[in-house]
Design goal:
The chain has four helices and no strands. The protein is mostly helical and 109 residues long. Helix 1 crosses helix 3 and helix 3 packs antiparallel against helix 4.
Length: 109
């Protein structure tokens, strides 16, 4: 259940961050409300995950998945295209999360 909380927290954060872009600096009501609700839900779910997961591990997964998913949303929804160094950087982030999860003693198996 812990990893389900963490994945749902990441999804809520990605939705909130995407709505932040759509809110146009908090000048549009519905995207702005989605930002507040999404981040609130994300932090609540992250807090539930932190009952079991070490904070460093949880945050690495949260940040890594969030960066990759927000980039994908940016590509699909907002027409943003990462360049080669951006793609390589994203690959390094994903690799780092995998190394932490698979090889680190701080991960919960």
């Amino acid at each position: 259940m812990t990893f389900i909380y963490l994945v749902l927290a990441v999804v809520a954060e990605v939705v909130a961050t995407s709505a932040l872009k759509a809110s146009d600096g908090f000048t549009r009501l519905w995207p702005s409300l989605l930002v507040v609700f999404g981040y609130g839900l994300a932090f609540y779910l992250l807090g539930l995950a932190l009952r079991v997961l070490p904070v460093g591990m949880a945050y690495a997964i949260w940040a890594g998945l969030g960066i990759v998913l927000v980039t994908l949303v940016g590509m699909v929804v907002f027409g943003e295209r990462p360049d080669l160094p951006g793609v390589l950087g994203l690959g390094l982030i994903v690799s780092g999360v995998v190394v932490l999860q698979v090889f680190s003693k701080m991960s919960v198996h």
